[in-house]
Amino acid sequence: MDLTPYVDNLRRELAVAAEASGDEARALAERLSAPLESAVRLTLLNVLSAAMGDVTRELAPGSVDVRLRGLDPEFVVTPPPVPEPVREERETVAPVVAAPPAGEADDGTMVRINLRLPAHLKGRAESAAAAEGLSVNAWLVRAVSTSLDGGGRASASGRSRDSGGRGFTGWVR
User: Which one, of 157, 130, 126, 131, lies nearest residue 142 by Cα?
Assistant: First the structure.
């Protein structure tokens, strides 16, 4: 930023004021012009520096600095870091496993897996399970089963009548 026009304007204003007071005042204004130029430049730098301090507070964590290049100030803007786009961590998709042939019955063998859910999903799963009177484990088993079996919905209780109408199938604790 070139301060020369501002300093030149101050000299002109001082010369106009001195003209109205005579030759002695004009000579004094000419003698004061050089020392006033340094004082004006320093004052303008202080004002710019204070203003950029206010701007920096508003831009935090970005900043604006005032640097002196020769006789003129220069602004250096450091923008705030751009946040990286949120990427969902996705695990690799397991290959689709075909259902066992109709002749093979489920032997009821239980296996254990560890499932890590984001906190907001865990809370929603717990609420949904509680609303249906199920444990979180039973609710998750039903959700996975429903998803893998073509999206059909199991009954609200998670249990279904067997084909003969004589009993129930499902999970028991």
Answer: 157
Q: In the 8-state DSSP scheme, what is residue 35?
A: H
Angle between helices 4-19 and 23-59 (to 10 degrees): 150
Say if strands 168-169 and 72-78 run parallel, antiparallel, or are unpaired: unpaired
For residues 19 and 11, the answer to whether their CB atoms sit within 8 Å is: no
**Strand intervals (E) in the chain:** 63-69, 72-78, 160-161, 168-169
Cis peptide before 61 (omega within 30 of 0): yes
Tell me: the pLDDT tens digits for 21-65?
Answer: 888 888 888 888 888 888 888 888 888 888 888 888 877 788 888
**pLDDT tens sequence across 58-104:** 777 888 888 888 878 888 888 877 777 776 665 555 555 555 555 55
The structure tokens listed for 86 are 């949120």
Spatial separation of the C-alpha atoms in residues 20 and 26, rounded to whole Å: 9
